[in-house]
C-alpha cells in the first residue's frame, strides 16, 4: 500500500497513539485504536461480500461514528467511497446508484426504507442499515492501493442538470489533504469541529485532514442547535472550525458570542460561498483569537485557493492564491493567459484535479487534460480576475448553478418538479443573494390559463422529490415572466427582483 494513501492514515496513527481520541460524536469518544477496529470490520465485511478494488460503495449516513467507520473501512478495502446526502429521496438515490454502478449501499435504520427501494430499482443491490450486520469478524485482506487508484466518487451537477460523478484518486486526495493541512498549520494537538455533512467535499476534507494530522475530529450532525455549537467550542477546546456563510450568520445571531472565552480556537475557514465584507468583520469581532481563512474550491479539485488571514484587511473580497504545491492562472476563450485586472476562466494545475467524470468522457475532456506525470489541468468554468500581486477575485459562474448553504442546486432539476405539477405553465428557478444562505432558491411560476396554483403546495411537492437544500425558499406567481430583447426569459431580472 502506498505510504501516501489516505486509506493508511487511520492505521498509522492507531499504531503509534492507540489511546488518542480520534472522533467525538453523539456523546461518544472513540480512540484511534477503536476506530481502526471498526474500520477493519467494515473492510472485512466488504471483502467477504466480494467488494474490492475500484468498486463503488454508496454511504448514505448522517454525521456519526458509523459514517466515519464506513468511509475508512471502504477505503481500506480498496473500494471507492460514494457519499450520498442523507436527505436524498428515493428517485435521487436510485439514479446515483445506477449511474455509478454501485456495488452496495450502507445506511442507517431511518434511511433503510429509502435505500431498500432505491437499491431494488438499481438492480437489486445489497444494502445494510446496520454496520454490525455488515462487519466481518476476521481481518481484512491486505490490498495494494496505488496513488492513481479511484478513492472517491463525489457527485455534483452541471448547468444541464443530472448528477456527475467526480472521480478522485488516492494520490489526489492525499495531496490536497497535505496542502490544506500545511497552510492551516494542522498538527496532533488540533481538535476540529465539523458541522458540515461528510457527503459534502468540504466536510469530507475535514475528516481526512484530521486523520492525516493525527488530530481529533468532533463531529456534529449539523447546526440545528447553535447554542450547543458554541458550548462545544468551549467544552471540547476546539482549535479549528470550518463553515459556510450560513454557519457563521447563525452563530453571529447569538447574543453575547464575543464575550465567550474561546482561548483554544485558533482558526476558522469559510468556503462554499463568499462571506460579505461586513460579515467578515463581524466574524473577526466575535472570534478575536481566531485567524479566518477565506477559501475557494470545487468538487472537481476539492480546494483551489486560500487567502492568508493577514491579507484580510487589505483584500477582504479576495479568495487568495493557489494552495501549496499547485498552480492557477486565468485564460480567455482562446486559451491566452491573462494579466492583472482582466477577467477570464480560472485554470488549475495539480495532482488534486479530478481524474474525470464517471462514464462521461466528453464532459471530462471539456474540463480536464493531462499535464505531466501526476498532474492534470482543470478548466473550472468560473470567471475570476487577479490584482497586481496575483491575488484572485471571484467574478461569476459561467453556468446558472445556484449555490445555497454551500451546496450546488441545478435550476433545471427543480424546474422539472415544478413543471410536473398540475396547472403550471412555466417555472423558472433562480438564485437570489442571501446573507444567510449565500444564495436563496426562488421559483417563479406562471399558471396555465384557467388554473390556480398554490405556492405552498408547490413547495411541498419539491420537498417530496428533492433534497432539502434544493427546495425553494419562495414560490412567486406571475401573470407572465420578464424577457430579454431576444425573447429569452430574463433570469437576471428575476434574480434581482
Structural features, described:
- This protein is an alpha/beta fold.
- The chain has 2 domains: 6-386, Rossmann fold, CATH 3.40.50.12780; 402-495, GMP Synthetase, Chain A, domain 3 (2-Layer Sandwich).
- It is built from 15 helices and 26 strands.
For this entry, give a set of tags:
globular, 5-stranded antiparallel β-sheet, alpha/beta, GMP Synthetase, Chain A, domain 3, 27% strand, single chain, 15 helices, 2 domains, 26 strands, Rossmann fold, 9-stranded mixed β-sheet, 497 residues
Topology, please?
Blueprint: H1 9-16, E1 21-25, E2 28-31, H2 32-48, E3 56-60, H3 65-76, E4 80-83, H4 90-100, E5 104-107, H5 112-121, E6 127-128, H6 131-134, E7 150-157, E8 163-169, H7 170-184, E9 191-194, H8 201-212, E10 216-219, H9 226-235, E11 240-243, H10 245-252, E12 267-270, H11 277-286, E13 291-296, E14 305-307, E15 321-322, E16 327-331, E17 343-350, E18 356-357, H12 361-367, E19 368-370, E20 376-386, E21 392-397, E22 402-404, E23 407-409, H13 411-419, E24 424-434, E25 438-447, H14 455-465, E26 474-478, H15 491-495
Parallel strand pairs: 1-10, 3-4, 3-5, 5-6, 9-10, 9-11, 11-12, 12-13, 25-26
Antiparallel strand pairs: 1-2, 7-8, 8-18, 13-14, 14-15, 16-17, 17-20, 19-20, 20-21, 22-23, 24-25
